[in-house]
Amino acid sequence: MMLIKMVLGIVSAVFGATIAAYFGLKKFAPWIFSDITYIRTVKGANDRFEAQCKNKKFIIDVFEETVKKYAKKTMLIYEDREYSFEYMDNMANQVAQTALNIGLRQGDIVAMFQFNEPSFIWTYLGFQKIGVQIAFINYNLRFKSLLHCIKVSEAKLILIGQGMELKKAILDIQDDLTSFDIYSQDPKPENLPVGFKSFGEAFTKAPSTQPDKSHRSGLRYSTPYVFIYTSGTTGLPKPAIITQLKASRAAYVMTIIGNGNDVLYETLPLYHSAGSMLGVGFCFATGATMVLRSKFSASQFWEDCRKHDVTIIHYVGELCRYLVARPENMQDKVHKVRVAFGNGLRKDVWKEFQSRFNVPQIAEFYAATEMPLGFINVSNKFGSVGRSSPLLRKVVPCEFVKYDYHTQGPIRNEKGRCIACRPGEAGLLIIPLTKIITFEGYKGRKEETNRKLLHNVFKEGDVYINSGDLMYVDDNYDVYFCDRVGDTFRWKGENVSTTEVANVISALDFIHDVTVYGVTVQGCEGRAGMASLCLKEPGCVTLTEEQLRLIWTHCKDLLPSYARPRFIRLQEEMDLTSTFKQRKVALLQEGFDIHKINSTVYMLNEKKSRYSPMDERTYNGILDGTIAL
């Protein structure tokens, strides 16, 4: 009897302590319960990633194991044709054998210049089988930008996809590519321009037997996997180094919200990390099926989802805005999509998108190609990109510090240290460099890599990575994205370098100087490009029809569509600092508002292939959304 009383006393005491602890946390640290939910949700994905690392497996090993499990299962659907895991593997084997036959070896680099298509995936899989590294070249690039990206890749050869458009882009710069072998996926050599070789012909003759793993025996987690280009303050794309470890981690991100039974709809470009590392990587890791499109189509989006029983859609914010802008349809809610996974979804679009199309979960995330960490919203919290509490920062360390918009850098106190933000205060996201958290930076760009680092942030000798993004944390430690800083802004889901655009426009002989910046447009995700021009003719505050035509033609020929300025204005002279840096504060405040600007504002009309003066009707049409950008 005494023993029973003792046991009951202990149980009662433990129960009481538990209840007290629960209510204590509820009162003094209520956010801890959100943390518990978050940790429970992401634990499975983290465990799978760590198991892969423990077994010293790389992404290509994971893919080959998935092929053995799901050989006959459909891995890819493209233009209504189905490709099994086994078929994709066989094609990848042929690529690997072809690559070996033309002299490629582990550690060599290939610059891939291809559209979204099945061959993109099996080609880069084939290169991974023999340890060849790949530089993903944006197929929108032309002339100077394209030439730059190829040259800085230090590739042994260039491999382009089929089709005259890509051939012509390379032909335009061929005279400057004398040190590169140029191969095409076209299987018929007679169809190729002079100086081009046929990778496709050799491919059709190669065996589909798997190459021996000794061809990639030198792989390490620190070995580069691919190079993915980002826009930066130098004005030209920079190749971010994506290691085998980072690619492996990325492949498991979507396993937080999905599994092998899912069908993923992918319309994002595969040359970006989102499409190739997160989307394709998810299929490699789980055996999920991907429905791939060559490019996004708002009119076909939901029809594709219905046709293929899609369960996960992969978005950037602008994509969702296009879908919401479509006329309402009685079938808007008829689909099997359960999760929308992506980044950059504006709050004003978020609610309408989720309710109109009845998408149960929005898994908004934050990440940057070259950054060593990211966040993900697993709780369906409106507007949030994830969590960063005192507890979670023990595992994923980061800080948010006060930012000076004028100096475009963190604010420092009298001791030279950065100042942490309070809850609700927008600040610059920075990540500490540690033995575990590393920053590989950009290939061949040591100066630009170092420029991303902040020293002596909170104490002497510490080093942090500057994300270049402004964010804030609320009282519950949910994180919200605010904006990008510096000389890069985001438009149409792409990063636009202001310096690159300015360099292109300033090459016109009637322009003395140019300032490029991004302006906020009501209802649009990101910022629309705007260029303020200073003409060589003194006192001139209008542009002639011929000058407008030349600007349009120049931008069309030398810039991707998303980088072409949506608005143009004139200034008699540029506003400069004492060190001759352009001031953009006043320009940003005026935006494209014709009531604040004392000169004509011109708007890009791509359908009519011209820049036209804006009037009151046009300006109001942009504001109310009846005129699309």
TrEMBL record:
Coiled coil: none annotated. Transmembrane segments: none annotated. Residues 500-581 form the AMP-binding enzyme C-terminal domain. It catalyses: a very long-chain fatty acid + ATP + CoA = a very long-chain fatty acyl-CoA + AMP + diphosphate; tetracosanoate + ATP + CoA = tetracosanoyl-CoA + AMP + diphosphate. Residues 63-390 form the AMP-dependent synthetase/ligase domain. Keywords: Ligase. The keyword Ligase applies. Belongs to the ATP-dependent AMP-binding enzyme family. PANTHER family: LONG-CHAIN FATTY ACID TRANSPORT PROTEIN (PTHR43107), VERY LONG-CHAIN ACYL-COA SYNTHETASE (PTHR43107:SF22). This is Long-chain-fatty-acid--CoA ligase. The lineage of its organism: Eukaryota, Metazoa, Spiralia, Lophotrochozoa, Mollusca.
